[in-house]
Amino acid sequence: MSAFYIAVLLASISYARDYIQVPGVVHVHTDVTMGYPIGKLVALARKYGIEAIVLTDNYSLRFEYGIFPFRKLLRKVVELPSVSTFGIGRYMDMIRRAQEEHPEVVLVSGVEVTPHYFWTGSLLKGNLTMHDSQKNILVVGLRNPEDYEEMGRIIQEDRYFGPGSVLRALPVVFILPGIWLLRRGRRTLGGAMIVLAVASSVNNFPYTLSRYDAYSEGGVVPHQRLIDFVEAKGGMTFWSFPEARDFEVIKFGKLGSVTVRTEPYPELLLNTKGYTGFGALYEDVVTATEPGNVWDRVLTEYCEGRRERPVWGIGEAGFHYEGQAGKRLCNVLTVFLVPKKDEEDILEAMRSGRMYAVLGTGDTRLVLDKFTVNGRALMGDRLVVEGNPTVHLRVEERGGRKVPVSLRLVRSGEVVRNFEGTTPLEATYEDTSLWYGTAFYRVEVFGPSSRIVSNPIFVTRLASF
């Protein structure tokens, strides 16, 4: 048996441990960024039977546009309330105090980050457009305010000193020739040279270079750098609403209008590495979780050794307040499988994929009571088998009602079995097809006004001779 299979087998020791299901909400805003005070969020959570809230207020909502070539001197800045303006230390203390006051609901601190936005067009032409201000990443699990503050230095403009810094400081040397021209009586030319030299020097200060800025697209670099930074600090990153479209035209009177646009970006799930997961279920159209689509391709890369770790799906709420875009706190949940209900175990469930997403906009909410392989492996687990893997499923309705449901069992991007019935519905599938290596199983459940998307279970099947 190879070292890889031995490692997978050793990782499977803790299957027998008991877990409880903790309904939670991921991506919730407080009154720091246009949401409810934490006390009101906790009251709503108790009303809906929610036991954990992952708070992710906007890290920064500062946007600026400058006119070339003096982009710093001639610029318009718009800054809305955010964690940065509130104070990251103060924000974390606020959540810590709220947790002490409301121990019945687990509060997990995080932030929503816009790694990079950029401009195209111009006001004069009437086509000025800000792109990607909603191409966001949720950051969870950082413990120190210093880590968040350091993170801020790579957001939007990752600046550094290099040989080009000399060129940015070069305008300073033209001050002396300008003074010389003034003394020679060339006041217009000398004065203009001094003004331009001083303006350029102030504009370019502190003479750093940027790997990306607000006037270039940047590609995936700003987002990958954020992912890498958070990973190095021990935190987690989740792509936020990868298929949501954002479009708005903002009028500024005589100055004209500005278009704000973010296009769907599911391809970035494939084009970036090292992130923890993504919004797999939310109140919009989601195609990335369709069998064989982007998520399955990413998971297949992991099975084939082309990706170091799996990518997990979460239910993403994007909640500010009741009624906003028809939302309620209970509409989109992430249910965590944990040994006990506390922050550490919730974070570990997010890190290890021991969770599933539930959408339930009506009175019906489905529960994935069981999803195992060979009665041992749970979501996020890795199992080694020699014979036929057997999948066990059980779906219930939260209130015990009988409702019609259909189950779709997916193996490595292919639907291998469909089940239909009424809750409580139990199903078993023995996989007798001939395949070897590493594959994954995941399940989707569809019911009236409710849907479930599970995380995968990985199975390595050994060839027997």
Describe what you observe in this structure.
This protein is of the alpha+beta class. It folds into three domains: 1-13 and 354-465, Immunoglobulin-like (Sandwich); 20-142 and 220-352, TIM Barrel (Alpha-Beta Barrel); 164-209. It is built from twelve helices and 26 strands. The chain has helices at residues 3-10, 38-48, 83-86, 88-101, 145-151, 164-169, 175-183, 187-204, 221-232, 268-271, 294-303, 343-352, and strands at residues 20-28, 52-58, 62-67, 70-79, 106-113, 118-120, 129-131, 137-140, 159-160, 209-210, 236-239, 246-251, 257-262, 277-281, 312-319, 332-338, 355-360, 366-373, 382-385, 390-397, 404-411, 414-422, 425-430, 437-447, 450-454, 457-461. The chain has a seven-stranded mixed beta barrel with strand order 1-2-5-8-11-14-15. A four-stranded mixed sheet has the order 6-7-13-12, with no helix packed on it. The protein has a three-stranded antiparallel sheet with strand order 18-20-23, with no helix packed on it. Helix 7 packs antiparallel against helix 8 (187-204). The longest helix has 18 residues, at 187-204. It is elongated.
